[in-house]
DNA sequence: GTCGAGTTTCCTGATT
DNA sequence: GAATCAGGAAACTCGA
């Protein structure tokens, strides 16, 4: 189940590598993702910056792209604060507790990742809640707050 | 063709 | 009362 990580090398600052379409391509294409018209200037600038950075990426195969999972996407976003533009933030870095600050923006980013412009935070959060069963996430009894579980890895600073 | 994992979608109820 | 969030169930996609 977790073998996706074994062939998806974790790169803290190059998390969104896409051999088929760079982030620059993604975010410059309104045909693909017109929803980002509603992003703030800061958000869109940040996202474009992310795209530029990702052009250096070259190591991911098509297989690893398709095996990219939601929790890895979230983890990578958390570990790249300069790229997440405050969409996610750590509540307790050592315990792996984080908070979704901009739920709609997160959903749109994930939707872009999956080329699904109908993605909403409601659907994304449903997928996140399924990780409770597998131990990748643990429930935190606060709204929009999640915690990495024992089966999540790569989020701890000293274990990268 | 079948199966399993990982979502995605719809719906309902609870909470804010 | 409306908006938002959480969880159940079923459908869907894709790789093995």
The run of helices and strands is: HHHHHEEHHEE
Strand content range: 5-15%
Poorly predicted regions: 1-40, 47-67
CATH superfamily of one domain: Winged helix-like DNA-binding domain superfamily/Winged helix DNA-binding domain
Globally, the shape reads globular
Can you walk through the features of this model?
With 160 residues, the protein is α+β, with helices and mostly antiparallel strands. It has a domain at 70-148: Arc Repressor Mutant, subunit A, CATH 1.10.10.10. The chain is 39% helix and 10% strand. It has seven helices and four strands; from the N terminus they run H-H-H-H-H-E-E-H-H-E-E. The chain has helices spanning 23-28, 41-54, 62-66, 70-78, 81-84, 103-113, 121-134, and strands at 88-92, 97-100, 137-139, 145-148. Strands 1-2-4-3 form a four-stranded antiparallel β-sheet. The longest helix has 14 residues, at 41-54. The radius of gyration is 15 Å and the shape is globular. It starts with 22 loop residues before the first helix and ends in a 12-residue tail after the last strand. The model is unreliable at 1-40 and 47-67 (pLDDT under 50). It binds a DNA duplex (16 and 16 nucleotides) through residues 1, 4, 63, 66-67, 69-70, 103, 114, 116, 118-119, 121-127, 129-130, 143-144. Keywords: DNA-binding, Nucleus. GO terms for molecular function: DNA-binding transcription factor activity; sequence-specific DNA binding. InterPro entries: Ets_dom (IPR000418), ETS_fam (IPR046328), WH-like_DNA-bd_sf (IPR036388), WH_DNA-bd_sf (IPR036390). Its main location: nucleus. It holds the Pfam family Ets.
């Amino acid at each position: 189940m977790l073998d996706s990580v074994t062939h998806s090398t974790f790169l803290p600052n190059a998390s969104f590598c896409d051999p088929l379409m760079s982030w620059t391509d993604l975010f410059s294409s309104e045909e693909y993702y017109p929803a980002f018209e509603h992003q703030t200037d800061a958000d869109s600038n940040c996202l474009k910056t992310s795209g530029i950075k990702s052009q250096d990426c070259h190591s991911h195969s098509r297989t690893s792209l398709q095996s990219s999972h939601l929790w890895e996407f979230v983890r990578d976003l958390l570990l790249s604060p300069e790229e997440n533009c405050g969409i996610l933030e750590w509540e307790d870095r050592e315990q792996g507790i984080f908070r979704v600050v901009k739920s709609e923006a997160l959903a749109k980013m994930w939707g872009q990742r999956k080329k699904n412009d109908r993605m909403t935070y409601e659907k994304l959060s449903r997928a996140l809640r399924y990780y409770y069963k597998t131990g990748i996430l643990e429930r935190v009894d606060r709204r929009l707050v999640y915690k990495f579980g024992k089966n999540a890895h790569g989020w701890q600073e000293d274990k990268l």
